[in-house]
Design brief:
Blueprint (H helix, E strand, L loop, with lengths): L1 H4 L16 H14 L1 H31 L4 H24 L6 H18 L5 H29 L5 H12 L3 H15 L2 H31 L1
């Protein structure tokens, strides 16, 4: 319905317009991202946070049933509340765009990682459901914030390529976490939360250092 409601007039295509070859366009896009400190940092954040998000969503049903003694109803309730939290934060950030920054993303994930570490030691279903709600809140907030940062940092002619590369980065490590945690969650149990929280916080710290070094190198090259 929203798509049908959008009214626009496509710009006429010029016959003399030269279309850049696919590989050349892709290579130019990667170089553009690599040369932009903010875009480079945004891609690292995308890779690592999606690794975390996919790991948790994979472990969630097993943990609810085997470690927190919940039911299918508990699982669906947790996901519903996470979705509501995601809608709420979407509306909130739409009204408060000043919070759509790189620094606020780091704060979000430090807090979320800390919540995962803390929740490991409280083996209650309601604590786990609160964690799922925080996950839904953080994931939706990240999508809005990271796309805002990318849009602001990208030149119009590179915007499509930047977002295309971001989609590639999003799924880059998904198979690894799917295979490893698919087997590991049965062994680790609730300590899966501790592992994910540790990986999230350590990943943020490492990305911060790498991004700072990359920015300094980019300044020297200029």
């Amino acid at each position: 319905m929203f798509n049908l409601a959008i009214k626009y007039q496509p710009a006429p295509r010029k016959e003399t317009q030269i279309i850049e070859p696919f590989l050349q366009s892709l290579t130019a896009g990667f170089k553009y991202v690599q040369q932009s400190p903010r875009l480079f940092e945004s891609m690292l954040l995308t890779i690592w946070t999606n690794f975390f998000f996919e790991g948790f969503i994979l472990a969630m049903p097993y943990l609810i049933q085997h470690n927190y003694h919940g039911t299918a109803t508990s699982y669906s309730t947790a996901l519903t509340l996470a979705a509501i939290a995601g809608i709420f934060v979407s509306l909130l950030l739409g009204k408060l765009p000043q919070y759509n920054t790189m620094n606020s993303m780091y704060r979000d994930f430090y807090l979320l990682g800390g919540a995962f570490l803390l929740a490991t030691f409280f083996k209650y279903l309601w604590v786990f459901i609160v964690l799922v709600i925080l996950y839904g809140f953080a994931r939706s907030a990240f999508v809005i914030k990271i796309n805002t940062v990318r849009q602001e940092a990208s030149a119009p002619e590179y915007l499509g390529r930047v977002f295309g590369i971001s989609f590639f980065a999003t799924d880059l490590f998904s198979p690894i976490i799917t295979i490893s945690l698919g087997y590991g969650v049965a062994i680790l149990g609730e300590w899966t939360l501790f592992l994910l929280g540790t990986l999230l916080i350590m990943g943020m710290l490492v990305i911060k250092v790498i991004s700072k070094q990359h920015k300094q190198k980019s300044l020297l090259n200029e």
